[in-house]
Amino acid sequence: MKIIVNSTPIIALSLINQLDLLNQLFHEVIISWAVYQEIVIAGDNKPGAKELKNANWIQVQEVASSSPLEPLLLGLDRGELEVILLAISIKPDWVIIDEKLARRVAKAMELPVKGTLGILLVGFYAGYLSKQEILDLSQQLVDYGIRISSPILNWLKTELDNDH
Fold first, then answer.
1. Main-chain dihedrals φ then ψ at residue 99, nearest 5 degrees
2. Please, which residues have CB within 8 angstroms of residue 149's CB and are 6 or more apart in sequence?
3. CA gap 34, 66 in Å, rounded
4. How far from each other are the two terminal CA atoms of the chain, in whole angstroms?
5. CA 46 – CA 156 distance, rounded (Å)
6. pTM score, two decimals?
7. Are the CB atoms for 96 and 9 separated by under 8 Å?
8. What is the pLDDT of residue 3?
């Protein structure tokens, strides 16, 4: 499976020491150059910078096409826009985005979207993480200041209880 990942999921997974889960679950993990710049260059010494820099299994790709729309008009930052443009051209199995507006735009473009918690759930289904680990990791994300809405946390708990 091939995925394209935005900045927030990389930072969030790095915070809880689960970035390598992407490498375990997917054969191709791709980010845009803007995402790399945002995390490693602009975010030097911040969560995710060292982890991304050391993750030689993550491919950094330039976006071939540019958007005719100014990203700020769409309300997206450069990284989000590049992730969506890359996804349109590469056609990944999933686009990993957490931000609500970027998810809406990606879905409107008919891209398959998952978020950080969705990736943890895939890790659970694949046997890499237990139900308790997922609950603990999601609480760690909240403790680190990652905003997760109550409906999303309830969805996660329901999915874990259904134990496909």
1. -65, 135
2. none
3. 13
4. 20
5. 28
6. 0.91
7. yes
8. 97
Closest CA to 60 of 79, 87, 89, 35: 35
Quick check: 82 and 54 in contact, CB under 8 A?
no
Residue 113, both tokens:
């979207």
Taking the mean position of all CA atoms in its chain, how far away is CA 92?
Answer: 13
Residue pair 47/41 in contact (Cβ under 8 Å)? The answer is no
Give the integer Cα–Cα distance in Å for 74 and 144.
Answer: 28
Closest among 135, 33, 137 to 83, alpha carbons compared: 33
Report, as an integer, the average pLDDT of 42-55.
91
List of residues 6+ apart from 141 with CB closer than 8 A: 12, 15, 16, 116, 148
Query: What tens digit of pLDDT does each residue of 93-131 get?
Result: 999 999 999 999 899 889 999 999 999 999 999 999 999
Could you tell me which residues come within 8 angstroms of residue 67 by beta carbon, excluding any fewer than 6 positions away?
74, 81, 85
Per the listing, tokens 């590049």 go with 82
Distance of CA 77 to the CA centre of its chain: 15
Find tokens 């970027």 and name the residue: 102
- Phi and psi dihedrals of 61, rounded to 5? -125, 145
- Look up residue 4 and give its DSSP letter: E
